[in-house]
Amino acid sequence: MNNRIIVIGATGGTGKQVVEQALQAGYEVTALARKPEAFTLQHPNLKALQGDVTQPATFQHAMEGMSAVISCVGISKARPTTLYSESMHHIVTAMQQSNVRRILCISSGAIDIPPHSSFIMTFLLKNVLQRIYKPVYADMRRMENTLKASKLHWTVVRAPKLTDGKRTGAYRIVTQQPLRKIPTISRADLAGYIVKHISDETTYQSTIEVAY
């Protein structure tokens, strides 16, 4: 695997962290954004590319020669959307056409309620978060299903509530573990996990949750 990656949604809070930490780790990074001028970071191994993830013609050419794709696509409001599923369909198609196999994708940890969670946590997730974000989570699930139906080396990284805290490296894998309180993770640590596992074959075809 070469060290060339493309980060989609690079101007978002987590996307910027992924780009910065990937550059620090020695990767050559293409940062895809609708408004690349909003991306102020400069580095000799960074290329900012204008593109719309819902318009595959704007980024298909950028997939050539990449070793991995990282999707940090996201929206800021709880509203009906097809952005996650539509963008993933286009990303998967572009990867297949360019023979790119590896992809890591950010999703949400609140899509499913871990078994044996406390009554309070189950109530909050089911009756608050899952109700408020129902249309968003539904489209995220479609996004995940698109990945799972592909033959790519995918990893879905489900994140809890995101903060702007520092990078600590002190997160844990929480898949199928009961929740006792609302979990969080900083965008910096979420990005740290993603960059660390770009070439980790043990995470292929896996849905992984990270939190403090």
Strand order of the largest sheet: 3-2-1-4-5-6-10-8
* Largest sheet: number of strands, sense, barrel closure: 8 strands, mixed
* Tally of individual domains: 1
| C-alpha-based Rg, rounded | 16 Å
Low-pLDDT ranges: none
Based on the coordinates given, report the CATH architecture.
Answer: 3-Layer(aba) Sandwich
CATH topology name, in short, is Rossmann fold
Describe the protein's architecture and organization.
It is a single chain. The chain has 212 residues and is α/β, with parallel strands linked by helices. The chain has a single domain (4-211), classed as Rossmann fold (3-Layer(aba) Sandwich). 32% of the residues lie in helices and 23% in strands. It has five helices and ten strands; from the N terminus they run βαβββαβααββββαβ. The protein has an eight-stranded mixed beta sheet with strand order 3-2-1-4-5-6-10-8, with helices on both faces. A two-stranded parallel ribbon has the order 7-9. α2 links the parallel β4 (68-71) and β5. α1 (13-24) packs across α5 (187-196) and α2 (83-98) packs parallel to α4 (134-149). The protein is globular, with a radius of gyration of 16 Å. The model has no long low-confidence stretch (mean pLDDT 92).
